[in-house]
Design a protein that fits this description.
Elements: H1 2-8, H2 13-20, E1 28-32, E2 49-54, H3 57-66, E3 71-74, E4 87-93, H4 101-111, E5 112-123, E6 128-129, H5 135-146, H6 155-158, E7 165-180, H7 181-190, H8 198-207, E8 215-229
Parallel strand pairs: 1-2, 1-4, 2-3, 4-5
Antiparallel strand pairs: 5-8, 6-8, 7-8
């Protein structure tokens, strides 16, 4: 799974972070739930030092190979492996729905330096095209046959009234990526329960060309949220 995530997932993170962090450079960044490093790589060059953590050692190994400009360690959102007041920016891409948010909030407040903040974001799978319909039906049929999609996490109700983090603002975003049919299929299969299932791969290759040309603009939609210590 780590190798699939490293080489097949869509390049949405650079677009999201370029917009969300526009004008913000320097400091020390911590990427929580970094996976294979796709969400960590765009922080390199924007922060003076970048550390990505993930609870799965295989993901950390893949991230080290993919992003040599950052440091990586095995770690969890509920127990951040950094010193008090040592981080200026925490990012979390599609990771907080897997975490104990109360424990993460306490850890974030502990490790953030004065003026530091958390940037959380999430986005849906690419299930539609930017300029024409048709892919939605194919994607729904794909999920009906083999899996149920992970819903986009909604951070707002998850933050309890007494949370140590204050949600300052959320912003929706849309990213359109030019992708070949093979690249899109690899991205879709990277999230399937068994991407090597011969029946699954055969069905995809037989049916996808009717909905997806040789290259298309695939639409990804999601949100960003800024949080600060309450």
């Amino acid at each position: 799974m780590a190798e699939r995530y490293a080489h097949a997932r869509p390049a949405v993170h650079p677009h999201v972070l370029a917009d969300a962090l526009a004008g913000r450079t320097g400091g020390r960044a911590l990427d929580v739930g970094c996976g294979a490093g796709l969400s960590t790589g765009p922080l390199v060059g924007r922060a003076a030092a970048v550390l990505g953590i993930d609870p799965f050692p295989a993901m950390v190994t893949a991230a080290r190979a993919l992003v040599p400009g950052a440091a990586f360690a095995v770690g969890r959102a509920e127990g951040l492996p950094v010193a008090d007041g040592s981080v200026d920016l925490i990012t979390a891409a599609g990771a907080l729905d897997f975490a104990d948010l109360e424990a993460f909030s306490a850890e974030a407040v502990r490790v953030l330096a004065p003026g530091g903040a958390v940037l959380a974001y999430d986005f849906s799978a690419g299930r539609s095209l930017a300029d024409r319909p048709g892919l939605e039906r194919w994607y729904a049929a794909f999920r009906d046959r083999w899996d149920s999609p992970r819903p986009v996490f909604d951070l707002r109700p998850a933050l309890a009234a007494g949370s140590l983090l204050r949600l300052d603002r959320t912003t929706p975003f849309t990213v359109d990526l030019a992708m070949s049919r093979d690249a899109y299929l690899a991205a879709v299969l990277s999230d399937a329960p068994d991407p090597d299932d011969a029946a699954l791969v055969s069905w995809c290759r037989d049916t996808l060309p009717a909905a997806f040309g040789p290259e298309e603009q695939v639409r990804y939609q999601g949100w960003t949220a800024w949080l600060h210590p309450a």
